Amino acid sequence: MTETRNRARSPLFAAALAASVAIGTTAAAVAAPQAGSKPATATVAAKSPPVPLLWKVSDDDNSLYLLGSFHLLLPDDYPLSRDVDMAFADAEKLLFEISPDELASPQLGLQMAQAALRTDGRTLNDELGPELAAKLADWGRENAAQLAATGMNVEILQRFEPWFVGTMVTVAQMMALGFDPSIGLDAHMGGLAQNAQKPTAGLETGAQQIAFLDGMDPAEQLQMLEQALDQAEAGAELMLELHAAWRAGDKQAILDSTVSEMRRDFPALYQAINVDRNDAWLPKLEARLREDGEDDTLVVVGAMHLLGEDGVVEKLRAKGYAVERVCSACASP
Hints:
Protein name: TraB/GumN family protein
Keywords: Signal
Strand content: 5-15%
Number of strands: 6
Strand order of the largest sheet: 4-3-5-2-1-6
Distance between the termini: 41 Å
InterPro entries: TraB/PrgY/GumN_fam, YbaP-like
Shape: globular
């Protein structure tokens, strides 16, 4: 019983989507293309700008600006900090988890759904068992209107694998709170780059991220779906706490909760979703630093990828590059 309560309190699955896996934002948009090609705007700047999770990594002639993203944001998260504006102005090109063109493509959500279609002749409930199936049915009834807006209902969800349904549960919860993938930091910065005619690229492809999710162990998929449903039942508090930590630029709060809990409770998932991908990105990031000339690159990736001993910031520091946090609002680096 204690394990179930702790799991319900943990925002790990939501954090993995919000802070690490860009493609997760497409799940609730299967029937509706994202508007990622336009920069986000807010009608009223009700709050001060978010404190950015932003670092500058340099060698003798080139620099990388590493910006930690939240893949779905609220309208009043804009405008951004002047630190981000200055990094964007200084960078000649931008690099994302997935290229902005691919992330904004209406085909990406359809590819994700196609990969998740069951081919074993069973329904989702056959795999879930009675207790988890009842939780999913309860969630589906409470969110019927939101599901209908994406062309889905609980019966249609029976055709998909648990990872996809869990992704939909989490993203649907976030969107119900007002979070919007079309104004997530990746989409916003991609739109700015397009308007400024700055080249963009991806560290990986949508197909690679889909393969990562679709290739998860069946037991792990069930665990993630259960956690997503528990998180939805627990309410908005933990997701809003995670967003508040990102907004405050509080790297320690994110490390102490999301990163530490995922590493402890889901070591295989943490290794795959964070460590392995960070290691695969390092040569591509170093290649940008070694380019001839003095072209700087702004790198926009999920915030979790930048933090802690497994984050790319510390991995690049360990390789001897000069690293500094860019944060005019911070009392200390």
